[in-house]
Each structure stands twice: as structure tokens, then as C-alpha cells.
Known about the structure:
By secondary structure, the chain is mainly α. It has helices at about 1-10, 20-55, 60-80, 80-95, 110-115, 115-130, 135-140, 145-155, 160-185, 190-200, 205-245. The chain contains eleven helices and no strands.
Amino acid sequence: xxxQRVWYHYLExxxxxxxxxxxxxxxxxxxxxxxxxxxxxxxxxxxxxxxxAGEAPREGSPARLRPVLAVYVLRALVVxxxxxxxxxxxxxxxxxxxxxxxxxxxxxxxxxLVKYSPLAALFVAVLLRLALTxxxxxxxxxxxxxxxxxxxxSLTWTRVGAARVVALAVPLVALTAGLLRLxxxxxxxxxxxxxxxxxxxxxxxxxxxxxxxxxxxxVGILVTAAVTxxxxxxxxxxxxxxxxxxxxxxxxx
Length: 253
């Protein structure tokens, strides 16, 4: 961005603040972000599960994290494709960017059903996510990825399991949302600071403006994750340990 600004200044042309570079940077950084997020979450889940089980800390090994990482990948593939696909299809048929005549006439029942179908798909995704909530704890307990998903499904889809998962998930969601809102509001003074520093460094007002907007959100997400992720992993590991049938000893076997 800085080089582009200097070049346009040399040509005595106005520098257009294009967001293409920011989008490309975000897309290139997304895989690295997902990898770091998965590794960190898997490590925290493994440590919390060992603490719940009363096991002594062991030396870290990537092999111990692979089942938990695989659970995150498989769970994401099960939960999120449906709402994403439905949202894309609904936007193609009901989006305001479409030229007239629309594929579906506004105000008709087919238009209303297609327009609000993403909400129904999101509701299904939330149910699936709740049903597979205990899968990382099961993987950290030694099960394979698919076995962990099946164990979570079987433990959750019972009267006791479903009630306890929902009773535990709702307060954790409320805590996460409230803490994120609080920390983001406290970090709002970072907006003008980040905007001013980045604009002076790059000369790109567009990048500086949106970086200033995102700075408090980033701080809020990091602080909230540092507080709630270990708590959430420990809580669901304890719930998994409580819902799981007691293990038979080796002697009895």
C-alpha cells in the first residue's frame, strides 16, 4: 500500500483506496488462522480433558492432537455446509442485487420461504452443533474422530444428555457474548490510535479506517477467547466424563 501511494504520488495521480489488497491478504491469511485456531483449541481441549480425568501432565505430541483436530474438521463439514449453501442459493433467488424481473416475485409465498430458509438451515446447524459438542472431549479421551462424533451424538440425543448440554451451553454462550461486548466497548479508544498510526504508515485511508474499526473487535475476541475457551473445554470435558458409562477395569475385562 505504501509503495502504491508513493508510485501514484510520483505520477501525480490521485491514489485510489482499493480494498482488493485487503481482501487478498485476508483470504491468504485465513488458512493459517484456521490452522492456528485448530491447534490451539486442540491443545487446550486435551489439557482440560486430562485435568478433568485427573491425569498427570504429559509431554506434548502432535499425534495426541490429531484426533481432536480431525474432530474439528469433520464437525465443521457436518454442521456448516448446509447453512452456507442455503444462504447462497437464497441470495441468488431473492437478493436485492438482482435485476428485474426477479426469479421469485417479492411478496409471494415462494419468495418468503426462500428468503427465510437460511434461518431454518441455521437452526438445523445449531442443533447439529449441540449434538456434536462433546466430540472434542471424546477425541481427547482417546477415541478416533468418527468414533468421537458418534459418541457425542449418542450421549447428547437422550433426555438427560440434551438437557445438560443445553443447560451448560446457554450460560457459556451468554458469558461469551457479554464478555465480548464488554471488552470491545472498553477497547474502543484503540480506534483513532490504530487508524492514525496505519494511515501515517501506509497513506491508505481505507485500510486505516477499517483497521481502526476492527482493532477493538480483535482485542475483544482475543480476551474473550483467553477467558472462555479453557472454561468451556473444561466444562464440556467434565460433562462428557459424567455422561459416559463407567469404564471397566482391565482385570474385569
